[in-house]
Amino acid sequence: MTIFSTVMRLGSLTAAATSLGIAQPSVSKSIALMEHRLGLRLFERVRGRLVPTAEAGLILGEALRIEEELSRFDRYLDDVRHLRAGQLRVAATPALALNFLPLVARKFRQQLPSYGLSLDMHLNHEIAGLVERGQYDIGLAVIPSADEREDLMVLRRGRIVCVLPQAHPLATSPAVHWEDIDPAELIYITTDARLVMLLSAGIPGFLHHRQSATETNRYSIAVRLVRQGMGITLVDEFTIIDAEAEGLTMRPFEPELKVSLVMALDSKRVARKALNEFTTSIHLTLDEELGSPRG
């Protein structure tokens, strides 16, 4: 196709060969082969000059279009090769999307500034299904460690912590035990049934709270209520990464209730380098915010 269009543009087999950096016999052979396959004469000799036929003129427009498409495709392949094309679609729980994910995205963007990044929030129990159905490439969620599965990549294991006002009597304790907490001041979070069941399994009577208790289905609301002095709350330690902590303190909660930050992934749809950079950005952020993994 390129040889044909070059001959048409330059009007000479010799000039086309020189332009393409190949021998003239190769150009002549290519044109002859094209004419044989099409069953058409593309060029005629008129008084020693190479003159294109009417059919060649008709074919040229389409040949140039295809040539441009192939050139565009080659450029696209080069962009993919160097991660200048493509997009990573990430879903995360609301708390992770608001606090943790922007820190990860900043690191990822520093390494791959031309790669697309889409960040959305969804409920914890929806994340794995959204990735499985192909709506997202990566999903980040927090689950009880006992619920870990082979199809979920464990990024870090952690625990439930207690969030308190700095002036609270328990704020200086090495850890907060359930027996230390006045149930009347506990702000209950009802976001995810699995985490609620984790708390209820580890804390006798957790589900039997009084009617006057404060409840919310958002971690961010619970933390803001604590900041307003309305009580204390129990959250996983990943949720409060980079949360506005002025006036607050976090203490380990006892009994220890283990949770895991996990990644749902469809590796067949994600460029390996983009995935590696995103995963590295997650681990770097976790190390900066929480320190090295325990044990």
Automatic annotation (TrEMBL):
Question: Residue span of the signal peptide, if any?
Answer: none
Looking at the record, the residues that make up the HTH lysR-type domain are 1-53
Sorted alphabetically, the keyword list is: DNA-binding, Transcription, Transcription regulation
What Pfam families does this protein's entry cite?
A: HTH_1 (PF00126), LysR_substrate (PF03466)
Name the GO terms of the biological process aspect.
positive regulation of gene expression
Q: Name one GO molecular function term.
A: DNA-binding transcription factor activity
Which top-rank group of organisms is this from? Bacteria
Q: Which PROSITE patterns match?
A: HTH_LYSR (PS50931)
Do you know which InterPro entries this protein is assigned to?
A: LysR_HTH_N, LysR_subst-bd, WH-like_DNA-bd_sf, WH_DNA-bd_sf
Family to which the UniProt record says this protein belongs: Belongs to the LysR transcriptional regulatory family.
Q: What is this protein called?
A: LysR substrate-binding domain-containing protein
Species this chain originates from: Ancylobacter mangrovi
